[in-house]
Design goal:
This protein is an all-alpha fold. The protein has ten helices and no strands. α2 packs antiparallel against α3, α3 runs parallel beside α5 and α4 runs antiparallel to α5.
């Protein structure tokens, strides 16, 4: 910053002297401003000399990094779209009964797919194995999904249930309960499917009360499939547990005609 020129003492000297002093002060002020500007220019020049190249490099790297991120995002989205198309193509082949072709189409996803597409492809591979009677291969696929920490939790849970269902006859009831009890909780996405298997295992253990209560809970779960709810309601009734909350609604679900005459009483 420029220094402020000193002012003459008030009342000192005559008019000529004052005018001369003012001219001198103006000259000093101009010189000081020029010196100040020169110092600033030197500071800018030294800063640019010392830090200019690193700053330019940082800006260039930042722009390059941002461009790389945009490219990576675009490439990732394109890769996901391609994987989804591969999965859909495999599904179409499987639904058409071309199991071998569908299985071959899924192979690239098992090697290069992201966690979600890989888990979905493995699940389809397990389904193909079941359809072909290769139960050991199916169980191996289900176990791979269940153990994959990067796979979506919903697919992992479903793989656990399908794995237990496939190997149910070879498992001890306590093993079925241990594996599926964490999923056989009302509110869980696969409560009905897991709960039914756990309830059957309870029956094999002689725990009729626990089995009846679980069947009744499944029957009352409106998110469960109607066929599963109907089956669970019947099982709960056989075990002495009332699972019917709304008789009219239950009759409607079972296809009973509304307004049917009540049975005649003696």
């Amino acid at each position: 910053m420029a220094l402020t020129p000193s002012k003459p003492t008030a009342g000192a000297g005559n008019g000529a002297t004052d005018k001369k002093a003012q001219q001198q002060l103006a000259t000093e002020d101009v010189l000081l401003r020029e010196v100040d500007d020169a110092v600033r220019q030197d500071q800018y020049a030294n800063f640019a000399k010392s830090y200019g190249k690193p700053l330019i490099a940082a800006v260039v790297l930042g722009l390059a990094g941002f461009g790389g991120y945009l490219y990576w995002e675009s490439h990732r989205d394109a890769a996901r779209e391609k994987q989804s198309e591969t999965l859909i193509a495999a599904l179409d082949q499987i639904e058409a009964g071309n199991l071998a072709a569908g299985s071959a189409t899924l192979n690239p996803l098992l090697l290069e797919g992201d966690s979600g597409h890989k888990a979905a492809a493995t699940m389809l591979k397990a389904g193909i194995a079941l359809e072909q009677g290769r139960f050991a291969d199916a169980q191996e696929h289900f176990a791979q999904i269940a153990a994959d920490q990067t796979a979506p939790q919903a697919l992992r849970d479903l793989a656990i249930i399908r794995g237990v269902s496939t190997a149910y006859d070879s498992l001890k009831p306590q093993d079925v309960v241990a594996r599926l009890k964490p999923l056989a909780i009302p509110g869980k996405p696969f409560f009905g499917n897991a709960g039914e298997l756990v309830a059957m295992a309870y029956l094999e253990q002689g725990k009729r009360a626990e089995a009846g209560a679980l069947f009744a809970a499944i029957a009352k779960d409106e998110k469960a499939p109607d066929s599963l709810r109907s089956r669970s309601r019947q099982m709960a009734g056989l075990l002495g547990v009332d699972a019917i909350e709304d008789v009219d609604k239950m009759l409607k679900e079972n296809g009973e005609a509304e307004g049917a005459p009540a049975p005649a009483t003696q």
